[in-house]
Specification:
The chain has ten helices and 14 strands. With 417 residues, it is of the alpha+beta class. The protein has three domains: 187 residues, no CATH class; 185 residues, no CATH class; 27 residues. Strands 1, 2, 3, 4, 5, 6, 7, 8, 9, 10, 11, 12, 13 and 14 form a 14-stranded mixed sheet that branches. A hairpin with a 2-residue loop joins strand 9 and strand 10. Helix 1 packs antiparallel against helix 2 and helix 1 packs across helix 3. The longest helix has 35 residues.
Length: 417
């Protein structure tokens, strides 16, 4: 999604920039024309009018040159000009784009791309190798100023790999955010046939790999500034995540909405590895996910999230990235899971706000996984599991466990006698 946003923003900027220049030039020409017929009392009217007419002629000539150049480019060099835009994008953000099929019109705002490869390597945030079968969008040329208005966009056949790197600072800061060259809003977005292998490092430094398939998805609208938010909370989608079917359903209007995320039999190890934290302790089994998100726009937008995670046949083990104290503290949760035959629910509520998703392209950058992890930690604390124990607390627990073990051994010896 990040790559497509950057490509869309670059093309939209390239389409609108010359048209903005023409509009500004024509506005200046109209003003010059008006002044040419208005006499001035402070100087000779003839001089004022002649000067204004000369300026008018120059401005009209400039406008004619720009329109003429656009007409020639549109008719004979449209594909070459789009490839030139791709070259600018590569120099700005390292995204290398190559399309075998390029069609469209500067004056209609319609662009069609086919058989594309999108590659970025050596980037500190994320690398990807993608193949795109087809993309088209219809830009509303009247939206020259402010946020560009894309009436419709269709993306199909997106396949490849995305590798995300864990930021050294711990979280994605604003300085690391890559923004599209021109902000835009897609009124009607349709996405079909997406197969992405997402891999990288979670917040704890542990590796994960998650295959994501999207059969179809729609979003109306999708804003470039809040694209991730709109995908999660203002869309409808079906597909598979780690081989398990998922669905996103949204109902409501611009004043308020309810979105439901549901997925069944998700491999819990894959889910936990991406989220990190306590969830990465789950090494085997499956989880059913059911999340209801509700919000109503009243001042600052906040989303109430009601999570229901039902684990089945799970196995818990501290990950390799866990510290010594964390490993020692896993005993209570292992005992709890075993006592329930590996089947138990996690239910919790949390609140997030729209601003968390401002120009963010991943759940980790938006802080969603961190919020989920904190909620799970709070639940585990109710079971007597404190992941962030101090050395003293952990030592006391170890001492109590040692006493318990010695007591069991003594009782076993007495029974044998």
């Amino acid at each position: 999604m990040e790559a497509l946003l950057l490509i869309f923003g670059e093309i939209i900027f390239a389409l609108l920039a010359p048209l903005v220049a023409v509009v500004v030039d024509l506005i200046a020409a109209i003003l010059a024309s008006i002044f040419s017929f208005i006499p001035s009392r402070r100087w000779e009217p003839r001089v004022s009018r002649e000067t204004a007419r000369k300026v008018l002629i120059v401005l009209l000539a400039v406008a004619a040159i720009i329109v003429g150049a656009l007409s020639i480019i549109n008719k004979f060099y449209f594909a070459d000009s789009v490839r030139a835009v791709f070259g600018l994008l590569e120099r700005r953000s390292g995204v290398e784009t190559d399309c075998s099929e390029i069609d469209g019109s500067v004056f209609s705002g319609q662009i069609t791309l086919g058989s594309c490869t999108i590659v970025r390597t050596g980037h500190p945030s994320a690398e990807f190798e993608l193949e795109l079968n087809h993309v088209e969008f219809d830009l509303k040329l009247s939206s020259l100023f402010g946020t560009a208005d894309v009436q419709a966009a269709h993306v199909s056949g997106l396949k490849g790999t995305v590798t995300r790197h864990h930021p050294q600072s711990g979280t994605d800061g604003d300085e690391a955010v890559e923004k599209p060259r021109r902000s835009f809003e897609i009124q009607d977005l349709r996405v079909e046939d997406v197969e992405i292998s997402l891999s990288g490092l979670n917040k704890d430094g542990g590796r994960f790999e998650l295959p994501v398939n999207v059969a179809n998805a729609t979003s109306a609208p999708l804003r470039s500034r809040l694209a991730l938010f709109d995908v999660l909370f203002r869309s409808n989608a079906t597909g598979k995540i780690a081989g398990a079917e998922f669905e996103i359903r949204t109902a409501g209007d611009s004043g308020g909405r309810e979105t439901v995320w549901s997925a069944s039999d998700v491999p819990v190890a894959s889910f936990g590895a991406v989220a990190g934290g306590v969830l990465s302790w789950f090494q085997d089994g499956v989880v059913d996910v059911y999340v209801v998100d509700t919000w109503r726009r009243d001042g600052q937008l906040e989303i109430d999230m009601d999570w229901n995670l039902r684990f089945r046949n799970i196995q818990v083990e501290a990950p390799e990235t866990a510290g010594v104290l964390t490993r020692l503290a896993t005993g209570p949760i292992v005992d709890y899971v075993n006592s329930h035959d590996g089947e138990f629910p996690f239910e919790f509520q949390m609140i997030i706000n729209e601003n968390q998703f401002d120009y963010k392209s991943s759940l980790a950058a938006a802080g969603l996984w961190t919020a989920v992890g904190e909620s799970v930690n709070n639940i585990l604390a109710g079971f007597g599991v404190e992941v962030g124990n101090s050395a003293t607390e952990t030592g006391d627990k170890l001492k109590e466990e040692a006493k318990s073990v010695l007591e069991r051994l003594r009782r076993s010896k007495d029974e044998d006698e």
